[in-house]
Amino acid sequence: MATHISIGNLSGDHQFERRIGLQTNKLRTIGDLKVALVGPLGLPRDRFDVIKMSEALLCNDEELLTRSVWSSKIVLVIHPPSRPIFDHLMTTETDMVNGEYEDDQRTVMSCGHGIAPATLYEYCWNQLQQGDLEFKCPAMDEFRVRGTQTTCGAIWTLYELTVKAQLSQDERILFEMKLSKNSLIKMKDVQECPFCRSLAVRENVKNDRVRCINCCQTNPENAEFCWQCLRPWLTTNSNYCGNLSCSTASGPKATQAILTTCVSKVMGDFKRTSPTVRACPSCSVLVEHTSGCKQMTCKCKHIFCFICLRPWKQKGVSGGCDYGNNCDPAKCQTI
Predict the structure, then answer these.
(1) pTM of the predicted model, to two decimals?
(2) Between vectors from CA 51 to CA 49 and to CA 54, what angle results, nearest 5°?
(3) Of the candidates 21, 132, 270, 311, which lies 20 to 30 Å from 69 by C-alpha distance?
(4) Which fold has domain 87-184?
């Protein structure tokens, strides 16, 4: 049975606005979806891409389809059939990205360097995906400064890119969306949610515990993340996220809070419940148990039992814990 879905392109062209029936149970990836859309659109699959509106990013063909794709309108970016060069902009300059391996005709940029229009589009889009706010010429200068080769670094405008890469209307809108998103991310108190990639605003600059509004609707049990390390918020404490590598985990108060609020788990075959985070009995550095047995080696080289916190039994030395000892868990530590 076919599922009817709504599709359209980014610029809202009526030519592509429609509802079509697809056998969604046979589609697994974005690539499968694009193949299924070739007929209804009347375009080859390299002429369009599916866009993630919340991220202003194009979907990869290998990405798996999710229910959210079918529950909302599928928005497409339509690419131009070709990227011709105006006669007065043609140049014999070597392509600044692909060098002598580029066989396509090149267009001259405002800085004097040459590049093929398709390569220009791909290069600038990659810059945006890396979070850049400007399009800078990557051509290598002919001279060297103190033995290091420098790049041209000239800044191209979006208008110049539109003309010389022959951007379609959809591509122009896509670039504007991504530029705006990159600009917002670089602003203070705006971060990209690590779960859904939508923008999250921190209302209280002193609170690193942030709840993503978008995730609250789609996955409320996994909607909180740390503003500092951009990882899931693991503790019930409002000041410390529970990720040991995070800056919020520094200081004695944070250390004690993590030891007190960390979750517990059953340790392997010993059937003993122990906190997942301990402080090394020798140097007090926090150690997290992720997998494996109860024997733990700290960075300071101290070897101890993660359950009872006693030193690990050594040959010729009396006392200590070992694998044969079904020890009792030590209580939550106080630093």
Answers:
(1) 0.60
(2) 175
(3) 132
(4) Herpes Virus-1 (3.30.40)
